[in-house]
Amino acid sequence: MNAERPAKPLHAEQRAFPLVDGMLQVGGMALTRLADRVGSTPFYAYDRALLSARVAHLRAALPPEIGLHYSIKANPMPALVQWMAQLVDGFDVASGGELSIALDTPMAVGHISFAGPGKSQAELRRALAAGVMLHIESEREAATVLTLAAELGVQAVVSVRINPPFELKSSGMRMGGGAKPFGVDAERAVALMRHLAAQGADVRGLQIFCGSQSLDAQAIMQAQASSFELAIALAQQSGIDLRILNIGGAFGIAYFPGDRPLDIAPIGAHLAQWLPRLKAALPSVQVVMEMGRYLVGEAGIYVTRVVDRKVSRGQVFLVVDGGLHHHLAASGNFGQVIRKNYPVTVVPRQAPAAGASVPREVVSVVGPLCTPLDILAAQMELPQADVGDLVVVFQSGAYGLSASPTAFLGHPAAAEVLV
Ligand SMILES: *Cc1c(COP(=O)(O)O)cnc(C)c1O
Q1: pTM (predicted TM-score)
Q2: What one-character DSSP code corresponds to residue 76?
Q3: How remote is the CA of residue 92 from the centroid of ligand 1, in Å?
Q4: pLDDT digits (tens, 9 = 90+) for 128-153
Q5: For a substitution probing ligand 1, which of 84, 92, 133, 214 has the most ligand atoms within 8 Å of its CB?
């Protein structure tokens, strides 16, 4: 394939999707062709080859003994989860709905785990009947699990989720491990582990998850070292033979200008250094990393079409047919403190003639919702676009459609395709 790269990438990660003769390619086909195939805009497209390449890239950096789990929460599209089933070693689910999606895949139930506070009795019953591992989030949940397992006549397979006394350092600021609704405070973990084991549960291990969306390799390595030390201490104090130590992920992706992609090589080397020491202290243990965003975030785009182009007091607005109801995160309303633009580009209906230069202009891309929050790009320099052209939001494979208020304002649903 004669793939050229965008002359002026707005963002390094945009280059994951190549240009051929000036046309963005997704899943090996021109985006305009894909839009015709989907039949309507807006839609999300996820690229299988990019998903596979991402997992291979990560595996190449990590020691081979590390298990890699996909957190379905990041993108629960069933076809995508099916695709991930052959790439990763396990799934982590955080609801009964996600459990159903995971159980429909070829993933062995022994490699599916279920985390999250406030699991309902119905969810716990289903998970026990399926035989998946439950991350225990409280003493009350432990008691419920033991009762339900007895009713069902099964042995509960559990790990205890720990609220550690430390936290992933972010942007130079270190917060002490504080009060959290997630997991059981480390100080109470030994008692809970012993109680579960004494009551007949199969206590497989621990989950220590201390953060998300970090681009700071040093901070991640520090949190991993602290997690290993904590796990060794808890295993020794409880006398329980840990077989699974889930240390979370925390790997972030670069969204905004100035974000530097996470350097995973030193993290892999640091894990390789730790493994012999861990093996000595915890001979049966397998280390598992679970993550969502890092695996799928860069493999997805959100595609909208320009329905109006207007000028207001000198500023150009491209009004597109999609917005925050499908992609809350790109609008800046999903946890961001200061709104920043996701990487966005324009794909014209017709690829420009070879050698033709498309003029650029500063525009704001807004959605059809009657609220000033519905912004996909504010004051961004883009190739000039008009009605009918496509506007593409990159870095949209994680926390996109399923993390958006799709009922707000009653606009049509977005399609999702895996290509
Ligand atoms: C959300 C979540 C993840 C995934 O986080 P990412 O930032 O998408 O990698 C992993 N583990 C747990 C327990 C979670 O709640």
Answers
A1: 0.94
A2: -
A3: 9
A4: 999 999 999 999 999 999 999 999 99
A5: 92
